[in-house]
Amino acid sequence: MSEKKIAILLATYNGARFLREQLESLFRQSCDDFCLYVRDDGSTDDTLKIVDEFVQKFSDRISVVDDGANHSGAAQSFMRLLESVDADYYMFCDQDDVWHQDKVEKTLARMREVETQMGDGAPVAVSTDLRVVDENLNVLAESFNADLKIGVFRKHPQMLYVRHVVTGCAMMFNRAARTASLPMSPLSTMHDEWIALCTQFKGGKVVVMDEATIDYRQHSSNTLGAAVASRSVLRRAVAREGRVQFFQNARMLRKEFGVSFPRFLFYKIFYSWL
What we know:
This protein is of the alpha/beta class. It has helices at about 15-25, 45-55, 75-85, 105-120, 150-155, 175-180, 190-200, 225-230, 235-240, 240-255, 260-274, and strands at about 5-10, 35-40, 60-65, 90-95, 100, 125-135, 140, 170-175, 205-215. Strands 1, 2, 3, 4, 5, 6, 7, 8 and 9 form a nine-stranded mixed beta sheet that branches. The longest helix has 18 residues, at about 240-255. Mean pLDDT is about 90; it is low at about 230-235.
């Protein structure tokens, strides 16, 4: 592998249908100061065949990480990659999206601005907006972040404890944020939310840009997507899986960040109505 500042971490699983289009968008980036690291979670379709095609084309830019473990799930697969790779900056990459040509360039520029403001050694994560598209890339919504109360988050960072703010495939974070986030708590269910929490509340900062830099594809095989993320807190809470996650998040926040259950409940109610 050549020396590159940015590690793009791609977790795959039976993603052959859209993977080639995503990989093509990566290697059209205006900023090419990155290496791509791919970890497959046990695909049975042509995913690895497609990855190998790109390895042949970009042998000095792609590394396949094989740790011998399958069916870890998306969050664990991304975190395994993060543990395995050393870089200055990291970006998560889903297998079915399409990156805009200047995604890396614009996110890196904002990252360096925030690092300058924060000073050396501070954890920093930068997330952009996403344009929501269907499986054929027809635009469904120009802004994924429009319903996420980003303006409230900018005034009240504590909202990050209880509401979705950053999306993994839209974020970049620096080495200090990686250090602050490893290992991931066994009580945490999503890698992006965990890294955002550790970055913001371990001496760093999470910044959300208003510009969309990615086409966020929605289709029947999405593990998570815009439809789930846009549900109201109350609708998610009444569902069985919502109740389980509610108490698991409460335990995680108490153990890892010292947020008591009454304060967690207050945040849930307060930031649902702002």
